[in-house]
Amino acid sequence: MVTAPFMLKRRIAWGDCDPARIYYTPRAVDCAVEAIEAWYEAVLGLSWVDLAERYALDAPFVQVDCDYRRPLVAGQIANLQVWVTEVGHSTVTFVVVGEDGDGILCFLARLVGGFVEQSNNASMPIPTQFRQSIENYQAQCGEVAAVVKKSNRLGLTSKWNASGPGTDKADCSCLPGSSFPFARQRRVMYGDCDASGVVYAPRVFNYAIETVEEWYEEIVGISWLELVSKREQGAPFVSVSCDYLRPMVPGQMITAVVWVTSLGGASLEFAVVGFDATETACFDARLVACFIDQNGFKTMRIPEVFRTRIQAYQSDCEAFMVVSRIPVRSV
Description:
The chain is of the alpha+beta class. The chain contains seven helices and 15 strands. Strands 1, 2, 3, 4, 5, 6, 7, 8, 10, 11, 12 and 13 form a twelve-stranded antiparallel beta sheet that branches. It has a three-stranded antiparallel beta sheet with strand order 9-14-15.
């Protein structure tokens, strides 16, 4: 019997880090998914490969949220605790608590996973041979709220329980060739996908964040590298979330569209929605960034030279959302 919460240790590698010398935002989601994959083997006694080959099932995630509390750097060991907070008819909700070697909370991720039949890619009830083990583990875990009360930016009872978009079909006929909203196309590569043949869940955060990176260069007028190296500032993400609406497969062209949903003194909130060639939404990602002074890693007000451009773009976003049917879930 595995003692709850199950813990996986993972070293932050040099390649996990970006030019700001901290781990790149999606790497926390990689860590969380890797911890849950190890949890399957330890608690259920089978790997995801076994699940596919022996039972013709996959275990995809339908929603992922991550709250960033403290940066991790190359060489540090992340202690990843896996909690089960809810067992539904067909889904399991995990919370992965990432701490450094001193027990300080670095990130908090919530992932909702389910079971899918490979033959028809349809969701199914949790198999009875797994449910008892999962529920027993959940009972051992107890309440995770007591562990994460020191990190409540997302709120365990508000945003983390928020429902997804009301629709996944949008009128985005205005997107190709238009200057607003900002959009970029990318092809789903073979290497973006896992053994199930669909995009590996953390890769979607790469799609969203890479699009926002280009948005900074074109709309705000500065690259992240210039922001860090020349101005000694930064705009790291403090919270990210994603609803997975449709599976994406190699060869698909995905159009990622950026909206600014909120602008604060130091913070900036984005919605990035990815559409396929039929204008159907495949993912709906939300990202909250905070401007910082690299000297001391302190929060700072968004520089006015950037704020004016962001405000103008946000105004366009608000006007566009009024007349469009783009799926927008509450943040």
